[in-house]
């Protein structure tokens, strides 16, 4: 993946504004016994917590552990790759993630994007750009009605987190409160 300082970002959790520090404590406590070297970084007044861990940990396992522990969050999104926020860097990262996956090609997928900050003009323009690129290469088909997989793009200012997973996992990222 494209090297940036947060290459070990494993998850993004959303919470209420001004509760980020408490959510961080919940996350660190929930992961303390299962995952070594976990640390949280709250984004002040942003309602977002970044979860960092060692590179060999599976982001989906971290998310499942957090959701089971009913932390003070709404959603916990796994992150499989990080890159700088630009059309070119995001497209390289998405292409690498799709090409290295063991899913048979062409993949029927949908893009889900969340933009926090001003580094990208629009999620819909980014999704169209990426869709045209991967369809032209024959890697995937964009499918809105019955997608099999999701490419989730979480834009956090100058940093972008990307995840690729089966559509059936989508409902498992919501924390029951």
Q: What would a concise description of this structure say?
A:
The chain has 177 residues and is α+β, with helices and mostly antiparallel strands. It is built from four helices and nine strands, in the order βαββαββαβαβββ.
Care to describe what's here?
- The chain is an alpha+beta fold.
- The protein folds into two domains: 72 residues, Alpha-Beta Plaits (2-Layer Sandwich); 84 residues, VC0802-like (2-Layer Sandwich).
- 28% of the residues lie in helices and 30% in strands.
- It contains four helices and nine strands, in the order βαββαββαβαβββ.
- The strands form two sheets. A five-stranded mixed β-sheet has the order 5-9-8-6-7.
- A hairpin with a 2-residue loop joins strand 8 and strand 9.
- Helix 3 packs across helix 4.
- The longest helix is centred in the middle third of the chain and has 14 residues.
- The N terminus is likely disordered.
Write the layout of secondary structure elements.
Layout: E1 9-14, H1 20-31, E2 39-43, E3 48-52, H2 59-68, E4 75-78, E5 81-84, H3 87-100, E6 107-116, H4 123-136, E7 140-142, E8 149-156, E9 159-166
Parallel strand pairs: 6-7, 6-8
Antiparallel strand pairs: 1-3, 1-4, 2-3, 5-9, 8-9
Helix pairs in contact: 3-4
> Could you name the CATH topology of the largest domain?
VC0802-like
| Proportion of residues in helical segments | 25-40%
Radius of gyration: 16 Å
What number of structural domains do the residues give?
2
Structural class: alpha+beta
